[in-house]
Amino acid sequence: MVKEINFKVDYKKYQITEEFNTDDPLYPIVLSSPHSGQIFPDEFLANTVLSIDELRSSEDCFVTEIVKPASDCGIPLLSMNISRTFIDINRDKIEMDDTMYYDPPQLSASTQGSRRCRVGLGVIPRIVSQNRNIYDGLLSYEEAMARIKNVYDPYHKRLKQLVDKCQKKFGLCLLVDCHSMPSQICRIMTEDKPVEFCLSTLFDQSCPEEMYGFIGQKLQDCGYRVEYNRPYSGGFITFNYCQPRRDLYTLQIEVNRAIYMDENVYKKTPDFQSVSKNLSESLVALGKILLDFKK
How do residues 196-208 score in pLDDT, each as one tens digit? Predict the structure, then answer.
């Protein structure tokens, strides 16, 4: 008999998001950090078969902290506090895997056919890295909908507000979605030096070369190996918020975790400060360029 997992989260106990320097932006950039959350609801922890360290294997560790100096210079930053293993806000909320629930509704064929859903990486994740299952039974669909209502929707509502505010003030907005990538993925490539930064632009569709090329060159000048759209071309946020005809642009930045942290113990290395400084200074420099982008 299949195990049915039932619990309800008291969302009032948790600060879902955190934001920095959002009152008066100085540059036409908004920073988003959707995967760096470290809060695991107690009710969730009581019903997962994984340890916290195992759950953190999907986390973009310290990414908010990496770009915080750029935010301190006047760039709004929105960060998710809830772990992405609980809900992944960089997915379309219709990407629901009905095989995870003992009481699923009739979902559309297009939703059920999502590649990410099939492998367990929908908006409600089924697995973490190395295909480890998060649960040992089936969830309640109602509880999944509560996650979307209380975590997913508030993040995207606030992110849209910040993007709209930026666009209204400056006439354009570049939404920079900030992530980290496992070093193992970077080492799969055959080149001698692993990728250290990946700039994802939906294959040059989400922002002009003047934007991604500028920050890419800045990072290369710092000695990093930068790739464009490999190994990632952009996720849901990059795609969903991109409206070039309205001067709303997006750029996804992926940082190789090995250049700033020890992935085995979730600790920063001595190189953390230089990575943070170099990326943040590059973002601020891009912001200054964008002030004259439409003139």
Answer: 999 999 999 999 9
User: What does the alpha-carbon distance between residue 237 and residue 175 come to, in Å, rounded to a whole number?
Assistant: 9
Contact, 39 vs 81, CB < 8 A?
Answer: yes
- 252 contact partners, CB below 8 Å, separation of at least 6: 176, 177, 179, 198, 199, 200, 201, 206, 232, 234, 235, 237, 238
Structure tokens at 178: 């900030």
The tally of domains found in the chain comes to: 1
Q: Could you tell me the residue range of the domain that residue 64 belongs to?
A: 16-83+161-290
Taking the mean position of all CA atoms in its chain, how far away is CA 122?
14
Q: What is the pLDDT of residues 6-44, one digit of tens each?
A: 999 999 999 999 999 999 999 999 999 999 999 999 999
Evaluate the omega torsion of the peptide bond into residue 194 and state whether it is cis, within 30 degrees of 0. Answer: no
Q: What is the pLDDT of residue 112?
A: 54
Instruction: With respect to residue 189, please indicate whether it lies within any of the assigned structural domains.
Output: yes
Where residue 37 sits, what CATH number does that domain have?
3.40.630.40
Please name which of 249, 231, 234 lies closest in space to residue 203, comparing C-alpha atoms. Answer: 234
Exposed / middle / buried, residue 31 (Cβ in 10 Å: 0-12, 13-18, 19+): buried
